[in-house]
Amino acid sequence: MNDLAGEDPYHELSGLRRDMLRFAELQLRDVAAAEDAVQDAMVAAMARISTFEGRAQISTWLFAILKNKIIDILRARSRFVPLEIDVDDIPEDTFDGLFDDRGHWAKHERPAAWGDPVDALSRQQFWVVFQACLDRLPVNTARVFMMREFLGLGVDEVVAQLGISKTNCGVILHRARMTLRVCLQTRWFDTKEPTC
């Protein structure tokens, strides 16, 4: 067990509530369901706080609990209203110049070396910049990306939940990843001072 280095875990848990609620609302598209999911996650965390071993940040642990609550809600819904997803305003050929005919990075378009990714990802400021980049994605694009990459839902499950085609899902995921890559490159990896 970990005493959280003398910090008040209850204060830290309540401080994360706003971010948890925003994330849950993005995924569930229902304020009441999002509030329920966050409340359930907070209650579960409070009940298990004595078992928190400190192998991860408390925010990571709490978001893992919330993620499982959201997945349970998504899977429990018997009917899903098809969602009209506008792929967004980025033209399809926007990223074509970045690659050669074989689909490899063009010589002068390769991303700059990002250094040690584990070290970069561990820095708290990186996540602030990542969140700012994620917030710039169109809401529906961000939702598809987070369902696939954060919640870990398979493509079949994402398309079934949202009523979109696999092709549309693939296009949305590709554009989300490329947009996040460009945003992170310019706002984190190419700058000495992170910008949001």
UniProtKB/TrEMBL annotation:
GO terms for biological process: DNA-templated transcription initiation. InterPro entries: RNA_pol_sigma-24-rel, RNA_pol_sigma-70-like, RNA_pol_sigma-70_dom, RNA_pol_sigma70_r2, RNA_pol_sigma70_r4_t2, RNA_pol_sigma_r2, RNA_pol_sigma_r3/r4-like, WH-like_DNA-bd_sf. Keywords: DNA-binding, Sigma factor, Transcription, Transcription regulation. GO terms for molecular function: DNA binding; sigma factor activity. Residues 130-180 form the RNA polymerase sigma factor 70 region 4 type domain. It comes from the Bacteria. Pfam families: Sigma70_r2, Sigma70_r4_2. Residues 17-79 form the RNA polymerase sigma-70 region domain. NCBIfam families: Sig70_famx1, sigma70-ECF. Belongs to the sigma-70 factor family. ECF subfamily. This is RNA polymerase subunit sigma. The lineage of its organism: Bacteria, Pseudomonadati, Pseudomonadota, Betaproteobacteria, Burkholderiales.
